[in-house]
Specification:
Shape: globular
Structural class: alpha/beta
Largest sheet: 8 strands, mixed
Radius of gyration: 19 Å
Helix content: 40-55%
Number of strands: 8
Strand order of the largest sheet: 3-4-2-5-1-6-7-8
Length: 311
């Protein structure tokens, strides 16, 4: 593994729609707000991280051109600095299709070099960050392999349905393909996403199915992320992360205050954002604890709250 990439986490699944981008944005944003220096890498040609973080229509959104040039030609990484305090982003988008084509051609002559393109680019920048999260595309095997070759950890979101768990086998195949040049990569954990809290039996069955797929003792996070469609939709519309929407909800005037003052309500409406934000905080704590424990930090010294950043 390239020196300095020990805290790079690839959020990956072979299937789309399982929460990869939402988890990348919310965990990265929450840790940044807690004082960690965080870089998010959008390796998806769909570029949905822009929608989650609210910079879709901004001048900083180059639709992945800069990252594509880095992957294809080895040019220096130029993250967008300060998307949030302590949070920088390597912007993704449709230009990454061009990068994937270029890496596919390169792989014919230099397969290891093609897989290591992102790792080589991240190496010089990694010391500037405490954690790096890579949002991987569900398809585009070339880009997915480049992401996994640069990562110390793989974090796999899955939903409770059987079809989404099929992506686990795709991830296992991708891991096998990069282990030669990245033998240190390991599974950080599987997280259940979009869980219906009232369907506990379904959630437990899904958790057991994951363990059957991966084997007993596989790292499955205790925390799951609940299904809250209204909160998710409002978060994307407003370009706010779950904890930011939670803060807006809690600070908004009460309905009777608006009615008394004859004021139209144009503030946040999704009260479920509070619960979703709590889920992401709990998952962030588990992620930090697992990484620091692996680095030899005693359990008693590991952070007990997302705000306790380790330097």
């Amino acid at each position: 593994m390239t020196q300095g990439l020990e805290r790079v986490v690839a959020v990956v699944n072979g299937k789309g729609g399982v929460g990869k981008t939402t988890i990348t944005a919310n965990i990265g944003g929450m840790l940044a707000a807690s004082g960690y220096r965080v870089l998010l890498v959008d390796m998806d040609p769909q570029g949905n991280l822009a929608e989650e973080l609210g910079y879709t229509a901004s001048d900083v959104n180059d639709d992945g051109l800069g990252l594509a040039q880095t992957l294809a030609f080895g040019s220096e990484l130029k993250p967008v600095v300060g998307i949030r305090e302590n949070l920088d982003v390597l912007v993704g988008g449709s230009h990454l299709d061009m990068a994937a084509a270029g890496l596919t051609m390169k792989a014919q002559k230099d397969p290891q070099g093609a897989k290591a393109a992102l790792a080589a680019a991240l190496g010089p920048a990694a010391p500037d960050y405490d954690l790096i999260f890579i949002d991987c595309p569900p398809g585009q095997e070339t880009l997915q392999q480049a992401a996994l070759a640069a990562a110390r950890w793989a974090l796999i979101p899955v939903k409770t349905d059987a079809s989404s768990r099929k992506g686990l086998r795709d991830v296992a195949r991708r891991l096998d393909a990069v282990v030669e040049i990245n033998p240190d990569i390991d599974l950080l954990g599987v997280v259940l996403f979009g869980v219906n809290r009232s369907a506990k039996r379904v959630s437990e069955a899904a958790r057991e199915a994951v363990l059957n797929d991966l084997g007993e003792g596989a790292p499955v996070f205790r925390t799951s992320i609940r299904h809250a469609e209204a909160a998710a939709q409002e978060s994307r519309e407003r370009g706010l992360l779950a904890f930011e929407l939670e803060e807006a909800v809690l600070s908004a005037p009460k309905w009777w205050e608006l009615r008394r003052n004859n004021v139209e309500h144009d503030g946040p409406r999704s009260k479920s954002a509070v619960g979703v934000a709590e889920d992401f905080q709990a998952l962030g704590e588990e992620i930090v604890a697992r990484i620091t424990a692996n680095e030899g930090v005693a359990t008693s010294e590991a952070p007990t709250a997302v705000g306790e950043a380790t330097r």
